[in-house]
Amino acid sequence: MNFVETERTELKQRFTDAIPKEIVAFLNTDGGTIYIGVNDDGSVCGVENLDDSLKKIADIIENQILPDPRDFVEIGTKFIEQKHVIEIKVRKSDGLYYIKKYGRSAQGCF
């Protein structure tokens, strides 16, 4: 599988604090997919703590983004080159989503 970062595809080496922002941005625009465990050049580096990362992502979706985005976000995994990659598919939503702790400010909406 070839990974290329585009307007609708975001590649992340590992789980970072930017994930909520990326999810909200895709919800508020045309949707997209975030791959965690993939380098910027498209090579697969894998996710070391798969279960921990999946729990953190589920927490973000359930508790940190408003309104509830679960109907628009799907979390999955892929096993590529003997490594685990997390795939977060975000569909375009029909409303305005934001990060709960920042509210509907410019800091919370993307």
Please explain how this structure is put together:
- With about 110 residues, the chain is of the alpha+beta class.
- It is about 25% helix and about 25% strand.
- The protein has 2 helices and 6 strands; from the N terminus they run E-H-E-H-E-E-E-E.
- The protein has a 4-stranded mixed sheet with strand order 1-2-5-4.
- Helix 1 (about 20-30) links the parallel strand 1 (about 10) and strand 2.
- The protein is globular.
- The N and C termini lie far apart (about 30 Å).
- The model has no long low-confidence stretch (mean pLDDT about 95).
Radius of gyration: 13 Å
Total count of strands: 6
Unreliable sequence segments:
none
SSE string, helix = H, strand = E? EHEHEEEE
Overall SS class: alpha+beta
Shape: globular
User: β content, as a range?
Assistant: 25-35%
Major beta sheet, strand line-up: 1-2-5-4
Major beta-sheet overview:
4 strands, mixed
**Number of helices, counting only DSSP H or I runs of 4 residues or more:** 2
| Helix fraction by DSSP (H/I, runs of at least 4) | 10-25%
> What does the average pLDDT come to?
93
Calculate the terminal CA-CA distance, rounded to whole Å: 29 Å
